[in-house]
């Protein structure tokens, strides 16, 4: 009975509505198929890396695509028990650099985004500074490496985690400030008016009222920047030449050499390096989506 009613209602619709409905369904199907293809393209290398981490180098060279003959944990044991690898040192260095850069970028981007996002903060050159910020977003970070290396050397910060912390935070600021300014610009001005009437000054208004409302955007910045800080390699091996102070991505070079390579150990190190970011995303994924979609619809 219900199906007959639905069929009758469809027949009563205008031909234009039927074509629009059909086109929308085709569009949704094509988008879903494209997303599915991209997802599979990402998952296949991930699964391949995981299965290689349980194989020996000999098995990988014989057939890199075959499943391991048995579940071996020797590659993972070698990461943590072999004194020549010292994966713990690289891991702690990455945690220190990523955490320090995140704190600095989060603090500066929230404050800068609040100033650029709220129209009541008017000062000379406000639009010029913001346009310069947007221009910096379009520049590739590789063009900064040589002058930044010279700058760190002049300050005596080469071969220290502080050099990476400061440079990573600087690289992340243009996008982070832009995201925060977009989010703050969508918050209603009545919140500020009510807080000012209650006696809040600018600092109290920012820390106690506006900043807690910006948690979705802050979560987006944390995940995007943590992913960049944790996986960045070129700047890490340029500024820091001391192996004991390098970050986790540089540990992969310990397994690949001219005289011999341990592909199983390299795959295991890749899996270990992926786990922290994967766990962080699983815990913060919902707020990440809220932050990315904030401001898409202006009320």
Fold and architecture overview:
The longest helix has 38 residues, at 15-52. This protein is mainly alpha-helical and 299 residues long. The protein folds into 2 domains: 2-52; 82-293, MetI-like fold (Orthogonal Bundle). Helices cover 73% and strands 0% of the residues.
Write the layout of secondary structure elements.
Elements: H1 2-12, H2 15-52, H3 57-62, H4 74-81, H5 87-117, H6 126-138, H7 145-154, H8 161-185, H9 189-197, H10 202-213, H11 215-231, H12 234-239, H13 263-293
Helical percentage: over 70%
β-sheet strand percentage: under 5%
Q: In the CATH hierarchy, what is the superfamily of the largest domain?
A: MetI-like
Q: Write down the CATH topology of the largest domain.
A: MetI-like fold
Question: In summary, what is this structure?
Answer:
This protein is an all-alpha fold. It has two domains: 2-52; 82-293, MetI-like (MetI-like fold, Orthogonal Bundle), CATH 1.10.3720. The chain has helices spanning 2-12, 15-52, 57-62, 74-81, 87-117, 126-138, 145-154, 161-185, 189-197, 202-213, 215-231, 234-239, 263-293.
Key words describing this protein structure:
13 helices, 2 domains, disordered C terminus, 299 residues, MetI-like fold, globular, 73% helix, mainly alpha
